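Contributing new records

If you add data, match the layout below exactly. Sequence lines come first and carry their own label; structure lines follow with theirs. Keep one chain per record. Anything else will be rejected by the validation script.
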Amino acid sequence: MKHIWQVLRYELVYIFTRRSFLFVTFGIPLVGFLLFTAFTQVSESSGETLNLLVTSPTSPLPEGFVDPANLVSVLPASVPEGQLLRYPDEASARQALHAGEIATVYLVPPDLIEGGRLTAISPEVNPASSFGGGWMQWTLEVNLVGGDEDLAARLNQPLAVERISLTPDAPDTEDPLTFWIPYGLTVLLYLFIVTSASLLLGSLGREKSNRTLEVLLLSIPPRQLLIGKMAGLGLASLAQTGMYLTISSVLLRLSGRTSPVMAGFELPLGLVGWTVMFFVLGYLLYGGLMAAVGALVPNLRDASSLTFVILSPLILGLVLLSLVLDKPMSGLAVSLSLFPFTAPILMVTRLAIGGIPLWQPVVAAIGMLITGVLVVLATARLFRAQHLLTGQPLTLARFARTLLTGG
């Protein structure tokens, strides 16, 4: 334990004294905060000017329509008074349009029911914006069903489906947080694990290239060295991510743009506990694999292709995230969330959605723990001179054979 604590402390001191790490952790959030503050002040000082530029000082003009077949026999009560004006012919309607009395003229053809086409004439057409016509469309729909607004509304939205699930603690499918909370947690967890594992790989590669690692192994057992490095760099990664989340939260509060959907929302303590546990277990697993790459690779340039292969299960989890969000109880979602290499992110996704039996996260956690411990033990065997000093190119086959056999 003494050596583990010494290595952990050394890694924290070293990484928090690196200018690049300090800039990424504190400098970039600080620059973003200053830019946001300056932008906010400029926006507030010029807010009235911007409003004058983008807001028309006049009220919206009404619209006109020509209906020779008299398909529109009544204007719905929901249409504002004076919003739709009837003209006897196209000529008079065009004259009013050119005079600026109306914004648009709609020509209702006699064969509207058969053809389903309505002609709209306006002075200008902006290709960047969609054409309006909501009141005219609503008026035609009401008249086509005999003037019954309730029936027209029912035709627009035939059914109001109330979903009742027999699964205990089933998620509320109408709540937007049902999607965004699992999605956000999954992405954050992915970033936590990848960043931490990458820091570990970089540290080992640096110390291996300057032969520091060989000197350390003369006085520190490989297993304690590896555990100390993983713990120290994992804490550094958490601190970095925590700084980004804190700055983001502060900026949202200062901007006053916190969504009303999120107002009063708090993550359940149980979900927070599971998230932390799966981060630790995911980092144990992938950090151990990255450490094995660092022990075997001749230099960090040769590690990129193998690193991609090692992280491919996590990438696959992100690719299939939408399927898991859509059907969290499907066989594919359950299988991937129990598989140790995709469980770190997808099990948290399903837990955030809710309605997951307790045995599933327990089984996933146990499987990840066993796999991670085996990986760390196997990686510790690689911290020997015959592996650290080898100049052989690293391939996937050699990596798997060495990790499994230790030789």
